Here is the input.
Amino acid sequence: MTDQRLVAVELDQLTIGKADEAVEHERRVAIADLLDSNTFVPADSEAGPYALRLAIEDQRLVFDIKRENGDPVRMFVFSLGPLRRIIKDYFLMCESYYAAVRNAPLGQIEAIDMGRRGVHNEGSELLRERLHGKIEVDFDTARRLFTLICALHRRGA
Here is the structure.
């Protein structure tokens, strides 16, 4: 196996759409974090590195994987249904955290942050389970992918 990682991530603007500048920034940061460090091994593929195009079509998340040079590798389509509840829970925890940061005592902020991280970890594990047998990723890569998938669901004001 050679260079089993992502070197490029593109968001399909036709299916994902543009958001306000704050959300677009959040998406760019999530992509940069993912590209900075990842392990990405599509099933039955031994030659990387890879480029990933993410799209949302018919309420499904599309992973269109190509080699760095543009040669197609594989396309996987995943239902967003199993992730919806955890994404909603994660957003609620984030809202609670940001509200607490403004005026809550440090102990309460830390407790909410621990809960937020726990929900994020739960989403990351669920994502790894959904990818199993199709794309192997380590836990840190799953966390970064989950962050990006959450950012795709934000539209902003």
Summary: Strands lie at 6-11, 40-42, 50-57, 60-67, 72-79, 135-137. The radius of gyration is 16 Å. The chain has a mean pLDDT of 89.
